[in-house]
Amino acid sequence: MKINYRPTLKELARKLRKSSTKSEIKLWQYLKRKKMMGYDFHRQKPIDNFIVDFFCNKLKLVIELDGYSHTFEDVSDKDQLGLWQLNIPLPLMGGARGG
User: Fold this and answer.
1) Is the pLDDT of residue 99 over 90?
2) Domain coordinates of the chain in residue numbers?
3) Which residues have CB under 8 Å from 83's CB, separation 6+?
4) 73 near 35, Cβ under 8 Å?
5) Tens digits of residue pLDDT in 3-53
6) 27 CB-near residues (< 8 Å, 6+ apart)
């Protein structure tokens, strides 16, 4: 399934990848290069009108580290796209936003 996104978000996603938080870098070490059970994840992925922290297309799984500022504003947005969302509180990643 192809995931649509607003093309204007592509450059912002690139900037976010270059300025990742410590928590994002820490989790990315586990997700990149199919280390997580062979699944392919992308970071700072534009989806629809959002940029999500991590995304696995095969699982239709969105992972958000803080779970507050990046959540889908309306549950129906996520449901319409057929996605699952996992919010990981920052204390589980080792602390505050910078993690």
Assistant:
1) no
2) 9-93
3) 47, 60, 61, 62
4) no
5) 788 899 999 999 999 999 999 999 999 999 888 899 999 999 999 888 999
6) 53, 54, 63, 65, 88, 93
Q: Are 49 and 20 in contact (CB under 8 A)?
A: no
pTM: 0.80
Q: How far apart are CA 19 and CA 16, in angstroms?
A: 5
**Cβ-contact 52, 15 below 8 angstroms:** no
What is the distance between the alpha carbons of residues 47 and 98, in angstroms, rounded to a whole number? 24
Domain 9-93 is in which class? Answer: alpha beta
